[in-house]
Amino acid sequence: MRLLPKLLEIKTIRKSLNISQKELGEKLDIPQSTISRIENGTMDPPYSKFKKIYEYLHQQRMEIEETEMTAEDIMTKKIYFVNSKSTIKDAIERMNEFSISQLPIIEEEGQNLGSITAKKIQKLIIDNPELIHATVMKFKELPFPEVDKSWNVKDISNLLIKYPAILVKQYDKFLGIITDSNFLNLL
């Protein structure tokens, strides 16, 4: 018999599967606000409701683990990026042009120098609009992790909890990028 996790573990499990509270609520016919209260520990749900949530999340995890899909199978092959000389304005234009919210900062030689996200840009230019002309290197964030094309989907899912994107490589060449949207297309 499988034991149910602690109440507060539901949030971690849900996030590791990249399922939103809203999506989980819709799938199980449970209000999103109820799921939020359960995850925050402000509600002690009936056993049947908690079991229903856990069993759904467990089923989703098992389906993903059973697939033999790899990074290469789910990646987007076109990588949009900026380089170290690009400005914040260049990054904004690129994000708008391709409807994306994060960009790696990659040099022509294939060096992964960092990243820039729409959230970071928003915070910067709201406080100081003149920063739009600064280089992305001045405000770069950590580089997106790099994984081999053979990485399995489960490990990729766990990385996407911490990072907005993952770069897929083979030897010294970038092959593609994986974001939450690639992963959610599996479900």
Rounded mean pLDDT score: 88
Largest sheet: 3 strands, mixed
The CATH architecture of the largest domain is Roll
CATH superfamily of the largest domain: CBS-domain
Can you give the helix content as a percent range? 40-55%
C-alpha geometry: globular
Describe this protein with a few key phrases:
5 strands; two-stranded antiparallel sheet; CBS-domain; 9 helices; single chain; globular; 2 domains; alpha+beta; 187 residues; 434 Repressor (Amino-terminal Domain)
Describe the overall structure:
A three-stranded mixed sheet has the order 3-4-5. Strands 1-2 form a two-stranded antiparallel ribbon. It has two domains: 9-66, 434 Repressor (Amino-terminal Domain) (Orthogonal Bundle), CATH 1.10.260; 71-184, CBS-domain. The protein is an alpha+beta fold. Helix 2 (21-28) crosses helix 3. Strand 4 (165-170) and strand 5 form a beta hairpin. The chain is globular and about 55 Å long. It is 45% helix and 14% strand. The longest helix is centred in the first third of the chain and has 20 residues, at 47-66. The protein has nine helices and five strands; from the N terminus they run ααααααββαβαββα. The protein starts with 8 loop residues before the first helix and ends with a helix.
